[in-house]
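[audit] Reproducing an earlier prediction to check determinism. Same input, same settings, fresh worker. If the tokens differ from the archived copy the diff job will pick it up downstream; this log only records the rerun itself.
[audit] input (93 residues):
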Amino acid sequence: MQITDVRVRRIDKEGKMKAVVSITLDNEFVIHDIKVIEGEKGLFIAMPSRMAADGEYRDIAHPINSQTRELISETVIGKYEAMLLEGAADVNV
């Protein structure tokens, strides 16, 4: 699997959520609404989720293993940080 496209939409409001990202896998499958969040230990990603009937949030799409999660996380956070360095409002790579 390769991440073939990353689109970052920066969030300018105050708060912990810094960006919303869409990624394309192998030029064939898109995952929207990955969130870049500022936590106590730095930036991390949250996969797209929705609230279930019990009030808990459940991921709609997520990696099956830790290597894939790390690949997605490093790629998304790297593109977000590159956008900040460039001073751009949004970045498509």
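[audit] rerun output stored. Observation attached for the diff report: The chain has a mean pLDDT of 92.
[audit] end
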